[in-house]
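User: Structure with histidyl-adenosine monophosphate, tokens only please.
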Amino acid sequence: MAASTHIFQAPKGMRDFFPEDMAVRRHLEQAWRSASIRHGFAEINGPTFEHLDLYTIKSGEGIISELFSFQRSGGDTDYALRPEFTPTLARMATAKGRSLPIPTKWFAIPDLFRAERPQKGRLREHRQWNVDILGVVGPEADAEVIAVAVAALRGLGLGPADIRVRISHRGAAASMLADLGVANDRMSDAFNLIDRREKLPPEVFAEQAAELGLDETDVTRLGEMICTRIPAVQSPTTIADRHGLPADSVNELETLSTELDRRGLLPFCDWDLGIVRGLAYYTGTVWEIHDAAGTFRALAGGGRYDHLVELFGGPSIPACGFGMGDVVLGLLLADRGLIGGDEMLLARPDVFVLSSGIDEAEAMLIPLSTALRDIGLHVRHTWKASRNIGKQFKEASNCHARLAVVLGDEVGDGAVVVKDLDAGAQFDVPLRDLSTWITRRLAGGASPA
Ligand code: HAM
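Assistant:
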């Protein structure tokens, strides 16, 4: 049969990960995992697909229209690839029921699938770090999850001049929308519209606002409201006074302000009435992290969802958390020059073993590499036929090896030359001492002369 000339490509909006891309992914995940663990969160995961209903119940129209749903061949049960992790987490909490420890602090790093129109910062598959606290009703939990998000971003080199945590409250937004005349049963649609406003041309926005009962003056007032943003070092009452926000939402934001302050986070945060979040289950504080210049889409989003576990049949457990995707974060870090050097990203070999090509060296190349790998070292050697030492040194330095072990003429006498490629220093080392010598050198200890 003739070979097919068809060239396959990854499906639209999906990504291939070459080694350098995997290195970036690992770099982000390390920062996420480290921040989660330092704050006392335990890692969980769930299935890649769930029953379709799990998402149609309470995630909201935005997510439902982006589902990849399917049935097993010959089956009639509807499934969907997970577009977000929160419903899975709520289902898992429900399964634990009353045995769920209070508080429960969980994190997860799932791959998620959304049939969005692929564009800068939005793909059809992304990896999303989720951090959630269940069982704590007060704003100290909201502050704690914000602290975890900021800790990871700081660990990646970003500061308050790069990222802003924009915080609002659904209760405050709902009260302002109600003032404008939005009916209670259309509130979720109104949140959805505000959340999507940057994707819509102004005339479409006005048209959809009119469907919610807003006239031209109301749309102008709505525009003013959603543009209101002040640094969180100022009290949230500054905004509350201007917009007549309800006392209970403002009290929550004030307590949150104190909790953020205790964690040194206020310089990273803004109060921003334009943040309402598109997902239907949020009930109180809502927030997103954006790059400070507003060049990219949101890096992260989250908030309080106090009724979701109960809605799934579990006990009444308050909850809050966030999701942070790898796509926009990767773009922002690249923009700031904080990723890209393969020295930082690709795993550096501890040792590169070189052979001069003499019989004794050739006989030792693989057994020595194996022995060093067996004691836990990352070891490489050339795969080329040439035994030109200069070329092998070039290979060693191209992959940023720390040490080069040269199997040369002295091998027969039980000795090798070791070059510390970082320090540029060279040593004669007896073969019998080699592993101890290397381990001490790599640990920064003094090398035997
Ligand atoms: P979300 O705002 O839909 O929230 O997503 C959170 C983050 O995931 C976004 O800010 C963005 O960085 C990333 N993200 C979302 N969709 C895409 C996409 N199509 N391509 C690339 N990145 C994307 C949630 O999913 C909530 N379940 C988060 C949460 C957890 N709330 C409470 N706990």
